[in-house]
Amino acid sequence: MKHNQHLSITLATVVCTLALTLFISALVSPLVNASYVHADNEYETHLPLIMRGDEAPVQPSPTLTPPSEPSPTPPPSDEEIRYGEGTFYGATGAGNCSFDPTPDNLMVAALNETDYGNADVCGAYVEATGPQGVVIVRIVDRCPECQPGDIDFSGEAFARIANPVDGRVPISWRIVSPEIDGPIVYRFKEGSNPYWTAVQIRNHRNPIATFEYLDENGQFQTVPRERYNYFVATSGMGPGPYTFRVTDRYGHTLTDNNIVFVENGEVAGSAQFPAP
After folding, report:
1. pTM exceeds 0.85
2. Is 165 helix (H, G, I), strand (E, B) or coil?
3. What DSSP element (H or E) covers 217?
4. Which of 91, 94, 103, 143 has a CB 3.0–4.6 Å from the CB of 110, allowing a cystine?
5. Alpha-carbon distance 53 to 261, whole Å?
């Protein structure tokens, strides 16, 4: 009887021990295969669980390598943004650039002495941003009293970016290349002749860098630019007709043949510059 009781107790102990072992195994197994998931659910790293004596389980900090991102597209290299102050004056479209008045289109401006340079941006277009808006203007004049970065707008253009009552406002601006109608135009200055010839480029979407003519020997000759925005060959270009080559500041070149001489007149070219 005692033998049977002892056997029953032994079997019960074995069963309880086996049940306890299975229960502990079921608890530990999910932790051994624990996984770490980034808060943004972008990447998942499976890590072993580390047990330190009687301490609670410690999860090691994972080393995460974020997915590679494409390098940001570099900003356009056409024109940098400049900063200064904007004012306004009674512009007519005429001025130091020697253009004709444009009473029907007074989206024009005068540029400070530094940025004006040697008429480098005469006829170019500027996008200016002020406290109340954005405007695109054509550079037709020089502002000797303006500081570097400043623009003196027509009253009509200034009103697009600020309250005229303010008079002077902070601006940012850059040279742009808007689409315009028609080809470039050559204008021969009054007084031009075969022995002293002055040519101006008009109706161009990009700033003009150089102007050349083909001489009698078949060689292109670069004509220097004057600050009043005419390219002047002091020894003349001959009687014509001419072959002209014009290059903008971005390196685009237009070549026109059979341009006839028209003193104090204009002759249209064959094409317009592309966008930068």
Report:
1. no
2. helix
3. none
4. 143
5. 100
